[in-house]
Amino acid sequence: MGKYIEKGGGYSQMSRKILLVNGPNLRLLGRREPEIYGSDTLADIEKLCCECAAGLGFELICFQSDSEGALISRIGEAPLEGIEGIVINPAGYTHTSVALHDALLAAALPAVEVHLSNIFKREDFRHTSITGSACIGVVAGFGKESYTLAIRALTARLS
Ligand code: DQA
User: Which domains does the chain have, with CATH numbers?
Assistant: First the structure.
């Protein structure tokens, strides 16, 4: 479990931290193509993920951006904050972003890529993941459970 740190005269527990990164258009979940992505909002999924991570002894820090640069910057900061691993749905940048791939390698933290949909059953342009090769594994096609499976896989690797 976590380390104990001195804080304001007493001691409190510092939990182990992992980062959840969601890319472009995922803030629209719930109303974005629900037949593909489901009816849960991003807030619903983040809550589910926080509960899943907490049950495994980890604090989950959630971040979403539509901007490739903001995603890259957030990943770059992660190792400086004691974050031990990353779960990432790069969304459309999965298929296009060498820079996001490089940011994951530069952070040098274990990362798991997730997709709500099975990208291999969809249009040809979704069949290639540029970011996936910078990750320890990829979970796709299980809806919101893709996220909890990814958290379980990542925390098992970290434990
Ligand atoms: C997605 C799949 C991507 O191809 C798409 O661009 C998304 C969502 C998924 O979670 O299924 O935005 O990453």
Answer: 3-158 (3.40.50.9100)
